[in-house]
Amino acid sequence: MNPLKLGFSPCPNDTFIFDALLHHRFPFPYRVEENLYDVEKLNRLALSAELEISKLSFAAYASVSDKYQILNAGAALGRNCGPLLISKNKVDLHNMDSLKVAIPGKYTTANLLLSIFFPQLTNKTEVVFSEIEDGVLSGEFDLGLIIHESRFTYALKGLEKVADLGECWESKFSKPIPLGCIAIRRDLPQELKESIQKGISDSVKWAFEHPQDSRDYIQKHAQELSPEVQQKHIDLYVNQFSIDLGAEGREAINLLLSYGHQVNLLPQCVEPIFINEKE
Question: Which residues form the catalytic set?
């Protein structure tokens, strides 16, 4: 059997999650080939189902649900971890229509949340997430929608928080915010899907139990080189939901996908969404 192509981002949460699986730190029956890309590139690759297994924004999943299902392991989902809308100067929240905003990708969950809570912000430009802060600092953009490590660096650069979209979500729905999932192609055998799911869950558990093992791999790929920022990133985005979504996690995901469809921002998903659900 050829290696399974696994796509994920170079961000610390993903390299932390997949280190043990990729580096054979525990028995695993399949060969896996790493494919590291920015999350928006992964979202777009999924449109043609090039990778058997891939990290995806939950918002992007709705556009490829005919090709992929969601695994119960490896997700980025939680509380107080949503994307932030930032600016260099004070912003009048009642007069934002003409403002230029840099977003980390059309298909990101961050952009979905922006469209839900700030629909007046339509002058959007897609920018690689790691370049958004500089675009706001230079004045190229009035606002930036930041994700990943940028949460921990924007204030040090003199930028200000305009809104926390995770807080907006949690205030409206009283649910954790689903950000990114690990999806697997629908056309793969069920036994393989379940084995991959268990392998990812075991990889997360190993990472928590042996945190030193993944340090070099995380450092090798991180955009932000500070070990302290890397650890904050992991602490924020990797949690019990990453081991197993559980009923609460799946409920939050179903809510995001159904509400996005209800407000005409997402297509309706093909069922079953999760690999362990029946038709």
Answer: 148
